[in-house]
Amino acid sequence: MNKDKPKYKQIIDAAVVVIAENGYHSSQVSKIAKKAGVADGTIYLYFKNKEDILVSLFQDKMGQFIERIEHETTSKQSAEEKLFTLVETHFQQLAADHHLAIVTQLELRQSNKELRYKINNVLKGYLAVIDNIVDEGIREKLFRDHLNRRLVRQLIFGMMDEAVTNWVMKEQRYNLEEQARDVHSLMVYGLAQPRS
Amino acid sequence: MNKDKPKYKQIIDAAVVVIAENGYHSSQVSKIAKKAGVADGTIYLYFKNKEDILVSLFQDKMGQFIERIEHETTSKQSAEEKLFTLVETHFQQLAADHHLAIVTQLELRQSNKELRYKINNVLKGYLAVIDNIVDEGIREKLFRDHLNRRLVRQLIFGMMDEAVTNWVMKEQRYNLEEQARDVHSLMVYGLAQPRS
Amino acid sequence: MNKDKPKYKQIIDAAVVVIAENGYHSSQVSKIAKKAGVADGTIYLYFKNKEDILVSLFQDKMGQFIERIEHETTSKQSAEEKLFTLVETHFQQLAADHHLAIVTQLELRQSNKELRYKINNVLKGYLAVIDNIVDEGIREKLFRDHLNRRLVRQLIFGMMDEAVTNWVMKEQRYNLEEQARDVHSLMVYGLAQPRS
Amino acid sequence: MNKDKPKYKQIIDAAVVVIAENGYHSSQVSKIAKKAGVADGTIYLYFKNKEDILVSLFQDKMGQFIERIEHETTSKQSAEEKLFTLVETHFQQLAADHHLAIVTQLELRQSNKELRYKINNVLKGYLAVIDNIVDEGIREKLFRDHLNRRLVRQLIFGMMDEAVTNWVMKEQRYNLEEQARDVHSLMVYGLAQPRS
DNA sequence: AATGAATGAGTCTTCATTCAT
DNA sequence: AATGAATGAAGACTCATTCAT
């Protein structure tokens, strides 16, 4: 399988750096090849075409991303803790890899609609993880039980995504991970004053 | 001022339709000119370049969009009501103009980073409106007072934006406006079971 | 109509010279544009793509070629004379335009099968002209009446074509037109000794 | 000598099939190697380069082709009979090997000029065979003695070649061998009505 | 002798923008 | 003000050939 060969990883990693540094539209295949230390043609031994590099990049990185989140959350007891860990791990991972953050939050969104649909498919795996936590919270009677779950998971994702995108657009000048607590709090308790 | 001349509006409106129907990358200047009923060169009498059409389009449409939301919210009494009206009007307006929804949620995001920064500047006006409502809610002691307001407005926007984007990507097959109540509820009360 | 604009002709004529001098596979669009004195992009205002230049070139030149032959032959009385005039005019025209001869006999044949089918369609008009002469000869009882006419026209064309191709491959070092009499004689009387 | 090794023949035969089935321009070295059951690199142990495969293919197949024709014709008595046998055997052989017919009549002609000159050299052997028959006919006083023999052999070849090419382009939907008699007749007696 | 992974040169076409009319 | 013909820069991908094993 091509995916286990070292050049596959080399090219993916080169693509992340090149796209983060040059922007999506200035990331020619030849530039990626050069950064990866291979010939242009070699790219095409491992990827069908340029779009395939990007889809693979996203699948690869997001696969690990989601796996890590799944792993961290399962060790937690309550749905509330799990949700916090999800937000925290989401922020942590992107804060730890600035290049990847730029690529996922800004550059990859400039791709055409078709590619974005493929990306969305990868994200379905993530939405499923969120779903499970919400379900658990409802079973625990921690969360309200008449929630529109399809909508809830969108909103949870939307909140985190917007928070990260803002942080990237502000050139990562503040600490993203510190926001995890507030974001989590908003998710769970909303804006309202606790009713006593 | 060019902006008041009829052709300016003609071109902007043509651009919305052309981009919604053909996608960002298949919306050549010549196609927009044709739809607008003017010569290619005429475009450049009203806009500096292609990007300027898109920025102007966004400013124009978003200006009206925000104005309408401001107008609707000011007539409401409480911050809670205002927030609901904001979500409702946000959803209403995009549901009423499918072309515009496609353009703002999907197509314009494929533009380059530079254009997206300009678009973000336009959105600052919207974020200010949200800010004011949150402030009011805090003053009314309806909302918690230790909220990170910069973050809160991002999350509010992120929730609505994600909800609309999903609706557009699902090809607008369900009723978006009906979700306003749930989204508002999530914003205000979060996921948690009301504590009695 | 594009075909009447001066640049259309300019580009066609440039293509003939460039292809004759450089060979089919070394005739880049940019080379043709340069020789025609227009920008690369201008080519695409007049032709759909590179292949379209070649098909149009062939249609244009062959159209004139055949027209000229038709014109010359109609003024002759007998089928025998007409056939001679056909061969003579065929040879004359190609001998008068060395570039065109190289292109039609050698270079255009390197095109892909698809293009060659299109070229063959153009040649059908020529075969029809030959057909008419053969028919007339048969009616005049000059030619045998049990001839397979579809085959006969192929053979007549094949003889001329091979003669011209040989002349081009021998770098046009001998006089092609002088061969018209012998070729005509072979067509009409064959190899055999006249029986007395 | 490489030519006697089994892989040499394997590669040549694979090339004929691959080119006939895929066309000249879709017949990559790797495709030929795969069909021949050898590695890409192995091709270069037996052939200098891709062109050398094609030239060798032509030499090989045409060598046998011409040999067979020589063999069949020598057993005939008169030049007229020999010429008929030549046409008949020419048609027979190509009708018997459709792949080869496609390759020689259509696909190999798409090769570049250089390759076609080499192919022409191979054909000189064939032209010599034709020459001999014409000479014999003249000596027998069967054929006219003031014929331009260089031209005559071209025309004889041109007639057969055009007949076969047409048959291939018509997708071999009629019987080629049946045309041998008519073609021969045209060669020997021409179009003219026998003079009594 | 045989392999096959790696190489890297080479080109058609699109489309935002200009400018003579 | 309006036109639209003309411009020309820019990049993904293929495939014949090599060479370390």
Note the topology.
The structure is a homotetramer of 196-residue chains.
Chain A: H1 6-22, H2 29-36, H3 40-46, H4 50-74, H5 79-96, H6 98-107, H7 113-139, H8 149-169, H9 180-189
Helix pairs in contact in A: 1-2, 1-4, 1-6, 2-3, 4-5, 4-7, 5-7, 5-9, 6-8, 7-8
Chain A binds a DNA duplex (21 and 21 nucleotides) through residues 7, 28-30, 38-45, 49-50.
What features would you describe in this structure?
With 196 residues, chain A is mainly alpha-helical. Chain A folds into two domains: 1-47, Arc Repressor Mutant, subunit A, CATH 1.10.10; 50-189, Tetracycline Repressor, domain 2 (Orthogonal Bundle). Chain A has nine helices and no strands. Chain A has helices at residues 6-22, 29-36, 40-46, 50-74, 79-96, 98-107, 113-139, 149-169, 180-189. The radius of gyration of chain A is 19 Å and the shape is elongated. The mean pLDDT of chain A is 92. Chains A and B meet through helix 7, helix 8 and helix 9 of A and helix 7, helix 8 and helix 9 of B. Chain A binds a DNA duplex (21 and 21 nucleotides) through helix 3.
